[in-house]
Amino acid sequence: MLNYTGLENKNVLVVGLAKSGYEAAKLLSKLGANVTVNDGKDLSQDAHAKDLESMGISVVSGSHPLTLLDNNPIVVKNPGIPYTVSIIDEAVKRGLKILTEVELSYLISEAPIIAVTGTNGKTTVTSLIGDMFKKSRLTGRLSGNIGYVASKVAQEVKPTDYLVTELSSFQLLGIEKYKPHIAIITNIYSAHLDYHENLENYQNAKKQIYKNQTEEDYLICNYHQRQVIESEELKAKTLYFSTQQEVDGIYIKDGFIVYKGVRIINTEDLVLPGEHNLENILAAVLACILAGVPIKAIIDSLTTFSGIEHRLQYVGTNRTNKYYNDSKATNTLATQFALNSFNQPIIWLCGGLDRGNEFDELIPYMENVRAMVVFGQTKAKFAKLGNSQGKSVIEANNVEDAVDKVQDIIEPNDVVLLSPACASWDQYSTFEERGEKFIERFRAHLPSY
């Protein structure tokens, strides 16, 4: 960790606890700052809040008193807190310095960064890069939106390691100096409109990933979205990936992954399922080549890496029915990929938090859907969608109830697919929790012998 002194003896307000706020508060205290944590929820019984208080950190919870801004000229914002929240909105109006937890991770570490963002595929790409590093003698530490708090991991990495960070659009907002050596934008589609208000704001948030890059850095992006992704601010060397044509970067040709005219691996030897994952694989391979990961390690990874939890995860088979957990499908595009992955009849479990998306764009992918079990805030929207397409629709209270109701309608060889197309926060704290509940109920219905 760098001996960073920029926050020593400064009064800093951390808004929003959760995992990243907790780690940010501890780090700020280590760096010599006078830290106050504020959360709109009541934290009087929260273990993390009590831990912070034992370190001498002040915790104010239950509301967002604007008076906290009077003595705290620096604000560290949890990525899940929108800029429309009163205390953040007021901080912006006052011209206070607003940092992100990811920005802190950059300030304290000398390790080069591979940063991954995009509407879909970023977790798969980040995980695959991490796996390729594991297969080599190099070290690539995963962090960020993938579940490992960036500011905590940044304290542990060596300057010779790579920090491989998954970044959401929430985390990219507010970046000032953050500069990855290799940045990846998997794709940009409509998402998180409840947070960003419109598509343009969302696209601009994603572009923050390369705003501080120089000619010595790299941006990897989808060739077929280059007009959406690139801008006048872009200074990095841009390399592309494509499954459709030869590009300056990496591509598929004659069934092989090809880089600079050299065949790396036959696509038939890839273990990761799904046509959509080819783009994720290309982005990960290119990043690892640029980072110096040996080709042998890359190939070893590609022939063994089968995917991640909650992303089209095969859960098991009950009699003749296979169950798949795609809880991480929090938008319609991810669910399109999921629905398009099966030729068998599908019982589709869907619903959750309403982010302002329309679901009619899923209609072309519903051909194999035999029945729908709908739940969450968007239950009525999905019921209307299913009825309009002549599908059998059953309403459920939540994911667990949905799995129970599946048992009443399931037929031999049906695929049971949880692919919500919505965030989980209306009923579950995370998409992981939602996926685990699905798996638990699946196991509860297995026959006991």
From TrEMBL:
GO terms for biological process: cell division; cell wall organization; peptidoglycan biosynthetic process; regulation of cell shape. Residues 116-287 form the Mur ligase central domain. GO terms for molecular function: ATP binding; UDP-N-acetylmuramoylalanine-D-glutamate ligase activity. It is found in: Cytoplasm. It catalyses: UDP-N-acetyl-alpha-D-muramoyl-L-alanine + D-glutamate + ATP = UDP-N-acetyl-alpha-D-muramoyl-L-alanyl-D-glutamate + ADP + phosphate + H(+). Keywords: ATP-binding, Cell cycle, Cell division, Cell shape, Cell wall biogenesis/degradation, Cytoplasm, Ligase, Nucleotide-binding, Peptidoglycan synthesis. This is UDP-N-acetylmuramoylalanine--D-glutamate ligase. It comes from Staphylococcus aureus.
